[in-house]
């Protein structure tokens, strides 16, 4: 399905499970730890400077944001996880909100799980990946901030990821840089095939 990325409009921003509307769209979901570069990559794909806010204060975006691209398709920006300076209550709220999202019978065409290419996946990254595998959600891994590594450093990290991430060989992957635009074309094609 061809998408009109430039048309994205914030449809609704949900801070509680109750605010989640019933399924109306085919959804492409963006998930990752706080500061992984999710807003930057979303803005790059949507061709906007700041539709999805690039946060100077990580951990602030604790809502699920729905960006409508067409009558049928929505991009869903999940709140980032793993920001250290977040209260227990806030962590619990994240869990309930994201849990409610994934269990509300939605039409999830694809989950784009973002991983910072420079570091080993965090315990929560792995929890998320295992959750996606166990729930049989269609997902891919988008490695972010590739411009921060040299070619050989990146190759080294990829070898390490193969050991660190379960089912690594059978998961679709794309290496991206929001800074340089690397991988965004490939990511768009993968999204479009998932929606087809
Ligand atoms: N060098 C580089 N920095 C990036 C890239 N993507 C994001 N950043 C920086 O990483 C920080 C967090 O980015 P943001 O998009 O707000 O992450 P989010 O918390 O996952 O939404 C910001 O300072 C961004 O400028 C990238 O591809 N390359
Ligand atoms: Mg963000």
Report on this model:
By secondary structure, the protein is α/β, with parallel strands linked by helices. The protein has a single domain (5-195), classed as P-loop containing nucleotide triphosphate hydrolases (Rossmann fold). The chain contains five helices and seven strands; from the N terminus they run E-E-H-E-E-H-E-H-E-H-E-H. It has a seven-stranded mixed sheet, with helices on both faces. The longest helix has 15 residues, at 88-102. The mean pLDDT is 92. The structure holds guanosine-5'-diphosphate (GDP) and magnesium ion. Residues 38-39, 55, 61, 80 line the site of magnesium ion (MG).
Q: What's the topology here?
A:
Blueprint: E1 9-14, E2 26-31, H1 38-46, E3 64-68, E4 73-77, H2 88-102, E5 107-116, H3 123-134, E6 139-144, H4 151-164, E7 172-175, H5 184-195
Parallel strand pairs: 2-4, 2-5, 5-6, 6-7
Antiparallel strand pairs: 1-3, 3-4
Guanosine-5'-diphosphate is lined by residues 32, 34-40, 54-55, 58, 80, 144-145, 147-148, 177-179.
């Amino acid at each position: 399905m061809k998408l009109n990325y430039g048309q994205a409009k914030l449809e609704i921003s949900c801070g509680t499970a109750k605010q989640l509307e019933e399924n109306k769209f085919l959804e492409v979901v963006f998930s990752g730890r706080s500061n992984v570069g999710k807003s930057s990559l979303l803005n790059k794909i949507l061709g906007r400077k700041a539709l999805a806010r690039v946060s100077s204060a990580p951990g602030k975006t604790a809502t699920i944001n729905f960006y409508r691209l067409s009558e049928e398709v929505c991009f869903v920006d999940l709140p980032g996880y793993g920001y250290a300076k977040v209260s227990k209550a806030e962590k619990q709220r994240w869990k309930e909100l994201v849990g409610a999202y994934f269990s509300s019978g939605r039409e999830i065409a694809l989950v784009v799980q973002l991983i910072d290419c420079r570091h080993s996946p965090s315990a929560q990254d792995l929890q998320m990946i295992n959750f996606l595998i166990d729930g049989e959600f269609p997902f891919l891994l988008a490695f972010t901030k590739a411009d921060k590594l040299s070619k050989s450093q990146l190759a080294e990290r990829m070898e390490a990821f193969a050991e660190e991430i379960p089912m690594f060989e059978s998961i679709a992957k794309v290496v991206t840089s929001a800074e340089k635009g690397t991988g965004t074309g490939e990511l768009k094609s993968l999204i479009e095939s998932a929606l087809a």
